[in-house]
Amino acid sequence: MSVAFRRESDEEHLEPKFEQPIAPGPNLVTARGLALIGERVETIEAAVAAETDEEARKVLLRDLRYWHTRQTTAELAPEPEKGEVGIGSSVRVRMNGAERTIAIVGGDEAEPGEDRLAFSAPLARALMGAAVGETVAFAGKADAIEIVEIA
Length: 151
Known about the structure:
25% strand; Tscrpt_elong_fac_GreA/B_fam; 4 helices; five-stranded mixed beta sheet; RNA polymerase binding; alpha/beta; GreA/GreB_C_sf
């Protein structure tokens, strides 16, 4: 008998819908990051309430489950030690002769294009714990990055 005659429905051949993956490890956030998560939850809740299409609603509910999890597991990162790079720091560095300012934030707040890096990003990990005037290794180069200023 042909497969076409045995199939119960077209839905059995659709790709399964998985939950959004959550990064392993602690969900450390800055105060700004926690506020952004709260805003995201409120926005999605409003969209769910207004949505009439069932498929679109399912997508929104999936997003809402993700952001509710991020909100409930969020831990405010401890303040970095004075004069030391940590989560919540804005650090001016000199790399390859050019200066740039990088903010080290939680994963959900990260925007690499705007120089807001997640604390788990390789560059942020290289900077963590450093002080002004120090140089740190990065990408296999010793003394690749000089810490110019920490705010």
